[in-house]
Each structure stands twice: as C-alpha cells, then as structure tokens.
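Feature request, filed as a ticket because there's no other form

It would be nice if the structure record came with a short human-readable summary line next to the tokens. Right now we just get the raw output. Example of a typical job, pasted below so the devs can see what we mean:
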Amino acid sequence: MLNFIIKTHRVGTVYTKPHLFVLNKGRNSGKPQKEPFTNSFVIILQNQEELESLFFIAYSLWQTKFWHPFLVGSVIPFLRLPDFKNEFNPKASLMMSEHNEHIKNVAELKLLEQKEKQFHQNSNLINDLRKVILYRYCRK
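Raw output as currently delivered:
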C-alpha cells in the first residue's frame, strides 16, 4: 500500500523526499510532472519506486481525462485539493491492487515513452537532413 502526502505546492519550497507535481489549473489539470508547475499539487512519497508507480497512475488518469468532471470555474477551470485527494487516493489504491498487472502496464508505458522519444529524435534528424539538402540545392 502506498503512503503519500498530497498538498498544495508553494513556489520556492524544497522537498527532500521523492515527489511529483500535478497541475491543478486549466484544461490539463491532473497532468503529472517531475518539475514544479506554478499552479500545482505536490505528492510526497517515501521512496523512488513508489514515485515511479504513482507517476504512471497520475499520468494514466490525466491521459484518460479522469479529472474533467471535477473541474470547477467558468473562465479558467481548476481542480480543488479536497476533490483531488478524495478521488486520487482510492483510484491509486484500486490501480495498485492488481500489482502484477500494474508492474506490467508501467513497463509497457515506459517502453512506449522511450520509443516515442526515439521517434521524435528520428523525425528531427530527417527534418535537419531535408534542410541541408535543400540548402545545398539552392546554393548552386
């Protein structure tokens, strides 16, 4: 069972334990990241393994737009801390209950992330080569 603390991030605060940030303002509310957002919650954990597991749980909830029904506000939607706590804790526990499946899903997500990064690098290289060829062609 995961043991973590969720609270509002304050700019300039330094956390010594493993932690991740979750955006709480805008249409991307619920988006996890290792670097702090201006408007974010911080989830503080006990060790690095828990951080990896919880990051991918938060990432999957954000990608499936799980938080959209909980957004409030007419101009700039935001996610309230009590709503986030009340929904994130049980959902994380439920997703972690099937531990073997969870580990398998996290490994697959890491592999996909790595392949996506490699794909973007290849795409950038192709664009650079295209520019070089066009530049050489136009210089004649």
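Something like this underneath would help us a lot:
The mean pLDDT is 88.
Helices lie at 48-63, 81-97, 99-139.
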